[in-house]
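stage 2 :: seqdesign
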């Protein structure tokens, strides 16, 4: 926007100069309000009421006791997560975007029904995020699949400079 409003030459005088200043001030305030709204659409910095509107728009429901930072991250990646939903690689990408480390998704596991999908993750990452994992599976998993979690507990023991790993699997 222009900072100075130019009136036609036939409008000269003190009153028209005042009118130009008032009009200029009005449009500057109007422009500031438009920019304020565009800044609020930024998920990383939006006020919580605006963030809730963005969440509603992107079909994200805030979980009970969910930290605001994680809520912002879920809203920020909602479109990419929706695009990746359903595929094995896509589900892994969804979990990675939300800060999960090691995880593995296995389909068509021998000994299980054809529609069962196993999600394996480390126990320390799963411990305080069970509700989030369930919500991600509900929202982005395939509707024709049954998911079950395999929680891995990795215990590292150092013996004389060597490393021995012990894996315990809990199926729940």
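stage 2 :: out
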């Amino acid at each position: 926007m222009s900072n100075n409003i130019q009136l036609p030459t036939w409008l000269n005088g003190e009153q028209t100069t005042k009118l130009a200043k008032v009009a200029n001030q009005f449009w500057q305030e109007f422009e500031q309000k438009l920019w304020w709204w565009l800044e609020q659409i930024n998920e990383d910095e939006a006020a919580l009421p605006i963030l809730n509107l963005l969440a509603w728009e992107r079909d994200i429901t805030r979980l009970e006791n969910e930290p605001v930072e994680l809520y912002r991250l879920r809203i920020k990646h909602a479109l990419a997560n929706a695009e990746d939903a359903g595929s094995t690689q896509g589900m892994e990408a969804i979990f990675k975007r939300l800060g999960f480390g090691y995880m593995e998704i296995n389909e068509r596991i021998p000994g299980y029904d054809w529609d069962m999908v196993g999600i394996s993750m480390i126990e320390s990452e799963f411990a305080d995020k069970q509700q989030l994992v369930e919500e991600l599976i509900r929202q982005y998993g395939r509707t024709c699949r049954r998911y079950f979690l395999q929680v891995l507990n990795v215990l590292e023991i150092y013996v004389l400079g060597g490393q021995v790993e012990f894996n315990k699997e809990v199926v729940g």
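stage 3 :: structure notes
- The chain is about 45% helix and 20% strand.
- Confidence is low (pLDDT under 50) at residues 161-168.
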